[in-house]
Structure formats: structure tokens, C-alpha cells
Amino acid sequence: MLTIGCHLSSSKGFLHMGEEAVSIGANTFQFFTRNPRGGKAKPLDLRDIAAYREYAMGHGFPVILAHAPYTLNACAKEGRTREFAWETMADDLQRMEAVPGQMYNFHPGSHVGQGVETAVSLIAECLDQAMKPGQTTTVLLETMAGKGSEVGSRFEELKAILERVREPERMGVCLDTCHIYDAGYDIKDRLEEVLEEFDRILGLSRLRAIHLNDSKNPFASHKDRHEKIGQGSLGLETFIRIINHPALRGLPFFLETPNELPGYAQEISLLRASYRE
Ligand code: FE
Ligand code: FE
Ligand code: ZN
């Protein structure tokens, strides 16, 4: 069975997200841990979480994916900004334990002129202070488009971070199809080669989730503008190949396409219909 969902608003709590997911044919979902632009997280509603966990069990949700605010920059140059990012990640991971065993994805960050090497050590340091002993969440690095000074648009950069952290076995990678195509990995015409490269550099066992997004821009544009499935430069065939690829089939897939719920429902049913059981 295809594990697929989309990004949902967390403003009405976990149970609401679970019900929304089921209503659009999803069996997982992604959500922001707090306002995507940063700021303080709402206090956890433990009753809502207990109700969600029961609901998710009943509906067989394999795993859900939390997404850190996209303003979080673990390798910021400015001390205050960086401190805020580190505190946010530590707080997010602590809160995640209310729903144990899920995944937490974040954008490695932008080095803003400090260079990739400095950024890599700051990101690893951030992870080491945020990931506390005994926590059950798998932390994922997202592949990026390489906009501005973004870190993580090359597999080698993600590898450098994983080599630097204390507990790489508690981490993984989330591959965003729009981002890596924009970054110059040709998953449209050379999916096999790109996956081989991923395997050689990072190891396919590190790949834990996929963001399914078409791209508004051409190959290697370093832009990061998501498009609806089949309406961008990647095209529907690419997505059908991805969800059915033997190395990827078992992974959870998350849509972050420009859609409201009905649009997501359509994309999910299209992809489910294109999945070879
Ligand atoms: Fe993201
Ligand atoms: Fe993404
Ligand atoms: Zn993006």
C-alpha cells in the first residue's frame, strides 16, 4: 500500500489533521511544529494527542512527519538568530516525544557567506545539543534547491553533516523532488543515475521520506517554486516512476504542492491509481 499524504495546517490540533488526512485518502501527513515563520509554539494539548494516537492506530498511519519552521537557520551568522534556531529545534524534539517514534524534518540552513564548512559544523553542533538521549524521533535533513547560500543542495553536503554528528544512526534524509531537480539532479531523465549517486554518497538506507512536488522552473534553476503534480517541469510520468521505483516504494510520500484539500485529494487519488500494488 502506498503511504502518501500532504502538508496540513496544525492549527486545529492532531486529531483534526488525522481526520483531514483520512478525508482526502491519505494515510500520513506533514505539519509545521509551530508557525512556519518561527515564534513560540502553542502548549501541547495532551487530550488531543491521546485522541489522535488512538485514531491513527485505528487507521493504520505508519508514520507522520513534522517540519521545522523554514526560517530556522541552524548555521546563521548572527548569534541571536542561531541561538533561536538551536533552542527551537531542541524544544521541537522534546515536544515530539508526546507522539513517539515519528520523524522531524528541517532545512539545513543558509551559510550567509560563512562557507559550507563552517555551516556544516554549526549544523552538527545544533543537532548534537538538540537530540537528547532516549528520544525516539528520527531527524531528517532535507535536500535543498541551492537558492542563495543554502546548504544541502549537494548530497556531499548532507553527508558532511551526517559524518559530523554524534548519532547519525538517529538521522536520515528527506528527498524533495522539486528541490533536487532545481539543484541539478535530473530525476526526470536520469532517475536511476541520481539514485545510484545518492546510494554511493549517502546510502539509500538513509533515505526516509520523499516530498513529492513538481517544479515551476526548469532543470537546475536553483529556484524552489513548487508546482502541482504533472503541471510543472517534472511531469506526471516522473512521479509515477518515483512512487513505483523498487528502491523508493516503501517510503512515505508527502505532497507540498500549491493546493487546498480538494486538490490534494485529487493528486493522492491519481497517484494511488498509478501505484502498482
Ligand atoms: Fe521543506
Ligand atoms: Fe520540501
Ligand atoms: Zn521547497
- Shape annotation: globular
By secondary-structure content and strand pairing, the structural class works out as alpha/beta
Largest sheet: spatial strand order? 1-2-3-4-6-8-9-12
Which whole number gives the mean pLDDT? 97
Q: Can you give the helix content as a percent range?
A: 25-40%
Total helical segments: 9
DSSP strand tally:
12
Spatial gap, N to C terminus = 6 Å
Compressed to H and E, one letter per element, the order equals EHEHEHEEHEEHEHHEEEHEH
Q: Give a list of the ligands.
A: fe (iii) ion, zinc ion
Measured by DSSP, the beta-strand proportion falls in: 15-25%
Rg, Å, rounded: 18 Å
Main sheet properties: 8 strands, parallel, barrel
Describe the structure.
The chain is an alpha/beta fold and 277 residues long. The chain is built from nine helices and twelve strands. It has helices spanning 14-23, 46-58, 79-96, 116-130, 155-164, 177-183, 191-201, 236-244, 261-273, and strands spanning 3-8, 30-32, 65-67, 103-106, 109-110, 138-142, 150-151, 171-176, 207-212, 214-215, 226-227, 252-255. It is globular, with a radius of gyration of 18 Å. The model has no long low-confidence stretch (mean pLDDT 97). The structure holds fe (iii) ion (FE) (2 copies) and zinc ion. Residues 142, 176, 211, 256 line the site of one fe (iii) ion (FE).
